[in-house]
Design a protein that fits this description.
This protein is mainly α. The protein contains 17 helices and 2 strands.
Length: 499
C-alpha cells in the first residue's frame, strides 16, 4: 500500500457514497477476522465429522495463515497496479467461492486445499481495505475512520469464537461445522454487488512492479520449514524432514540476496531491506513474528484442551473466552490513550510480563484443578492474559513504525502484516511438537482427558518462555514513539490487521 492515491472517479472524499464504501470494506475485513477465530472453535467438530488427522487439523488453520502471509504484499501491489476496487472485488468474490468450497468439502484434503485458496483470496481482499479508505476519505476524516476500524477489529476478535460456537451448537440445517463457512456466502455476495456500485476506483500513480520470484522464494521457504514440522511426528521424524528445514534457511538466505539485488536494479523488491537498518523496526519485526508464534500455539491448543481434553461443548468453550476478549479490548484502549504517552516502551514490556504471568497462572490452575476445572476458575488467568495482550497489540504498531521514514510507511505496514501471519503459521506448525508430540498415538477413552491436559500444560510452558523472549526483544524498541517524543500530533498510522 502506498500513501499517494489517484482516484479514477470524482466520487471520492466529498461524495456521501464514501460511507457506503467504508461499510462494505469494513464488512469484508470483519469477515476475514471472524473467519480466522471462528474456525478454531469448530476444529474438534471438524475432526469428529470429517475424520481429519491431527496434521490435517493443523493445515486447516496453518494453510490459511501461510497463503495469507505469502500473498499480502503481492495483493497490495496488484491493487496499486490494476486498481484497488477491481482487486478488492476479485478478492471478495474468490473468498466467497472458497468459503463455499470449504463448506461443501467432501473430505479433509478438499477442506485443506479450500482453506489455502481462502487465505490467498483474503490476501487480495484485505490490503485494499486501508488503501480504499486512503483514496476515498480526506485526511481530516481518516482519524475517525481508523477509530471505527479499530472497533471493528475488536468486535471481530470478540464475536468470532462466540459466533463459531453458536453456529456449531445450533447445527443449522444439519450442516454442523459447515455453517461457519457457508455463512460467508450471503455476506460475500452482498459485498460484491454493493462494492461494484459504491466503491471508487483508485490506483497508485507510480505503482511498483510485481516481485513474483520473491513471493515464490518466501512461499517455498515457509513450506520447506512448516511441512516437516506438521507432518514430522506422524511420519516418525524422517531424515528428509531435517534436510528440508535446513534447506528452508538456505532458501530464505537466497531471498535476502535476491531482494538486495532487485532493490539495486529496479527498485521494486518484495521486501524493502533498507527498513531493517532502522533498529526499532528490525526489533519490532522480530517481536511481531515471535508474538505471532505464541498466539498460533496458544489458541489452537486451548480449543483442543477445552473441547477434547475436558469434553466441553463448543458453546461452553466459546463463552469461556469472553473474559479474555473483553480484557484485551479494555486494556488496548487504555494503553494507547493513557499509558503509552506517559510510560512509553515500558507499557509493552509490562504487557509481555503480565501475559506471561497469566499463562503461568493458567498452567498452575490446570494442574491444581485437573479435569474438574470450571470456566469460572479459568476466568482469572484469562483476564490477566487478556490485559497483557491488550497492552501489547494496540501500541506495538506505532512503536515499530515510529522511526520508519514516511516514504516507506506503506511497505513497512505491509511487511508487519506479513510477518505476523508467518509467525502465526509457524506457531501452528510447532503445535505438532509442543502439543501433539506429548500425546500418545493410541489412547484409550479414559486416557484422552489426562493426555490432552498434560499436553496443554506443556504448551503453556512454551508460550510463557516465548513471552519472556518478547520482553527482552522489546528493549530494542524506542523508549517512546516518535510522535510522543516530539509532542506533535502525527497523522494516524494505518492499523495492522490482526487475524
Amino acid at each position: 500500500m502506498t500513501s499517494t492515491e489517484t482516484p479514477l472517479s470524482t466520487a471520492g472524499g466529498t461524495d456521501r457514497r464514501r460511507w457506503f464504501a467504508l461499510a462494505i470494506v469494513m464488512t469484508a475485513a470483519f469477515m476475514d477476522l471472524v473467519d480466522v477465530t471462528i474456525v478454531n472453535i469448530a476444529i474438534p467438530s471438524i475432526q469428529r465429522e470429517s475424520g481429519a488427522s491431527f496434521s490435517q487439523i493443523q493445515w486447516i488453520t496453518a494453510g490459511y495463515a501461510l497463503a495469507f502471509a505469502a500473498g499480502l504484499i503481492t495483493g497490495g501491489r496488484l491493487g496499486d497496479i490494476h486498481g484497488r476496487k477491481r482487486i478488492f472485488l476479485v478478492g471478495i468474490g474468490g473468498f466467497t467461492l472458497a468459503s463455499a468450497l470449504c463448506g461443501l468439502a467432501v473430505n479433509p484434503e478438499m477442506l485443506v486445499a479450500s482453506r489455502f485458496l481462502q487465505g490467498a483470496m483474503a490476501a487480495l481482499m484485505v490490503p485494499q481495505v486501508l488503501s480504499i479508505v486512503h483514496a476515498t476519505f480526506p485526511a481530516h476524516e481518516r482519524g475517525k475512520v481508523f477509530g471505527l476500524f479499530g472497533a471493528v477489529v475488536g468486535l471481530g476478535a470478540v464475536s468470532g469464537p462466540l459466533l463459531g460456537a453458536l453456529l456449531t451448537e445450533w447445527n443449522l440445517f444439519g450442516w454442523e461445522w459447515r455453517s461457519i463457512f457457508l455463512i460467508n456466502l450471503p455476506v460475500g455476495v452482498a459485498g460484491l454487488i454493493l462494492g461494484s456500485r459504491f466503491i471508487t476506483e483508485s490506483r497508485a500513480p507510480r505503482a511498483l512492479k510485481l516481485d513474483l520470484v520473491g513471493v515464490a522464494l518466501v512461499t517455498l521457504g515457509l513450506l520447506m520449514l512448516l511441512y516437516p514440522l506438521i507432518r514430522g511426528r506422524e511420519l516418525g521424524w524422517p531424515v528428509w524432514g531435517y534436510v528440508s528445514m535446513a534447506g528452508a534457511l538456505v532458501v530464505l538466505a537466497a531471498l535476502v540476496a535476491y531482494e538486495r539485488r532487485k532493490s539495486a536494479t529496479d527498485g521494486s523488491p518484495l521486501v524493502e531491506l533498507s527498513l531493517f537498518r532502522v533498529k526499532s523496526f528490525a526489533a519490532g519485526i522480530a517481536v511481531q513474528t515471535v508474538f505471532g508464534v505464541a498466539l498460533g500455539v496458544f489458541f489452537l491448543v486451548w480449543t483442543l484442551y477445552m473441547q477434547v481434553g475436558l469434553g466441553w461443548s463448543a458453546l461452553k468453550a466459546g463463552l469461556t473466552g469472553v473474559p479474555f476478549s473483553i480484557a484485551v479490548s479494555a486494556a488496548a484502549g487504555m494503553s494507547v490513550q493513557q499509558l503509552v504517552p506517559r510510560f512509553g516502551r515500558k507499557v509493552l514490556q509490562a504487557g509481555a510480563l503480565v501475559m506471561a504471568a497469566g499463562v503461568l497462572l493458567y498452567l498452575w490452575e490446570s494442574g491444581h484443578y485437573g479435569l474438574g476445572i470450571t470456566p469460572w476458575q479459568m476466568a482469572l488467568p484469562l483476564v490477566v492474559m487478556g490485559v497483557g495482550m491488550g497492552l501489547i497489540v494496540a501500541p506495538l504498531t506505532d512503536a515499530i513504525l515510529s522511526e520508519v521514514p514516511r516514504e516507506h510507511s506503506g511497505s513497512a505496514s505491509g511487511l508487519l502484516n506479513t510477518v505476523q501471519q508467518m509467525g502465526n503459521a509457524l506457531g501452528l506448525g510447532l503445535v505438532s511438537v509442543v502439543f501433539f508430540g506429548t500425546i500418545g498415538d493410541r489412547l484409550r477413552p479414559e486416557q484422552v482427558g489426562p493426555a490432552f491436559a498434560d499436553a496443554f500444560r506443556n504448551s503453556l510452558g512454551w508460550v510463557a518462555a516465548v513471552l519472556g523472549v518478547i520482553f527482552l526483544l522489546m528493549f530494542a524498541l524506542p523508549k517512546r514513539p516518535a510522535q510522543h517524543v516530539e509532542g506533535e500530533q502525527a497523522e494516524p498510522k494505518e492499523p495492522v490487521l490482526v487475524s
